[in-house]
Design a protein that fits this description.
homodimer; mainly alpha; Arc Repressor Mutant, subunit A; Tetracycline Repressor, domain 2; 11 helices; elongated; DNA-binding
Chain lengths: ~230, ~230
DNA sequence: AAGTAATTAAAACAAACGTTTGATTTGTAA
DNA sequence: TTACAAATCAAACGTTTGTTTTAATTACTT
């Protein structure tokens, strides 16, 4: 029996139970290869777990995939106050300049997470696979993870450019910013070829972050009532 | 025997041979489900062809996939002078204004292709699957298809904003524009949920095209030597 | 210490997979 | 017609797939 409260079942706190070990390896493999290309046997072997454990704990492979996405993005939600902090800070200082600065930092944080953090990369991989082959899990992730972030960023954008208040294509602004960042995840292999590079160096990453921030803020701040 | 020159083997010109039928169905299925999730049996059944035909004509499933990508993007290259024409026209009129207009039309054409043309959508699907799980075919597609387009768009950008000449983050500008467009393919299911829509209507598509063009051109034209 | 529930383990299941085989049909040229 | 090569076909190949079964083992409660 897997008890979550008692510590007697685990000699060391660091040791993961069978279920947790499955979820951990599943996150890795599903992100790397996708649902169809990941076999339960490979998964069980890498998790050092019997083949039957998957069906014992999760009922089916599909359900393991669904639970893996839930588990992964719940982790991400908990560990994302870094972003939310940024948004809150700007709201205290209500000036457009503060919001613009927050947007620039948001972009920089986003780009660096995607291009340097293995965990963030896994999340992005799982998400892009969901977009190619949507499952019921996508609804949950969008509602609980993406929609709140989109709303928060949009609020920041309005603060940075008050002229946008009530504009009918307001929701597209956050998409313009986020899409530029995500492109450096989705299209990374292509972008590396275009830049004639083997990998993303810290210098290039900084350059990219600065470019997207500058590009987007110019688009935002140069907005005049004529453009609306 | 499949003869490519003689017409006697095909009663009607519209009828496709076994090989062509396989390539056609393969493009569809690989785009919809990906390599791993597409079975040769399903493919052969939908192409009304014997199972052994795949290995007879292509040697293996993997090779069929590779040939499908080659075939598909070679078609795309041939049928893309619509884009190239746009670039050429701007070069004749050498003014920044002409280039800016061309960029706006480029974006509109791009967005509408991605969101309305089934063939363009298939190409985009194949490409996004290649980016998630790169195969040797990616190199070919990038070199022959993407790199030329990136160079042409970059030339257009320099013409639209001559101050960018020689700038070290010049290659990122085309990426900023293209990424915004592609996002409406990659993240379409998510974007629909964000916009609370069932599907993309022609009105929204127009709105998106206008937004991206306006957003990008503002970012481009508001560039001053200070920003460099 | 006994007994019950939870977990692990090994083995086997049918189904589907990509591929190969060998025979048959088809088209063409001698 | 005869001969030969290309194309198509049904059938079966050996693996691998996700899942289930059955038995042994472990952990917890009474």
């Amino acid at each position: 029996m897997e008890t979550t409260t008692s510590l007697q079942t685990e000699q060391k706190a660091e040791e993961l139970g069978t279920k947790a070990r499955l979820l951990s390896v599943a996150e890795k493999l599903f992100a790397e290869r996708g649902l169809a290309a990941t076999s339960i046997r490979d998964l069980a072997r890498k998790a050092e777990v019997n083949i039957a454990a998957v069906n014992y704990y999760f009922g089916s492979k599909e359900n393991l995939y669904l639970e893996t996405l839930r588990h992964t993005f719940q982790k991400a939600i908990v560990s994302s106050p870094r972003f939310d902090q940024l948004l809150k800070e700007a709201q205290t200082t209500k000036t457009p300049q503060a919001a613009q600065q927050a947007i620039a930092e948001y972009i920089e944080l986003f780009i660096k997470l995607i291009l340097t953090s293995d965990e963030a990369r896994r999340h992005a991989c799982l998400m892009s696979r969901e977009m190619s082959d949507p499952t019921p899990a996508l609804d949950v992730v969008v509602a609980e993870f993406i929609l709140p972030k989109h709303k928060a960023l949009t609020a920041l954008i309005v603060q940075a450019q008050p002229a946008l208040t009530g504009s009918k294509d307001l929701p597209f602004y956050a998409l313009s910013i986020v899409s530029q960042c995500l492109h450096y995840h989705f299209a990374l292999p292509i972008i590396l070829k275009l830049l004639n590079k083997k990998e993303m160096t810290p210098e290039v990453i900084n350059q990219v972050a600065k470019h997207i921030a500058s590009f987007s803020l110019r688009a935002l701040t140069s907005l005049t009532p004529n453009n609306l």
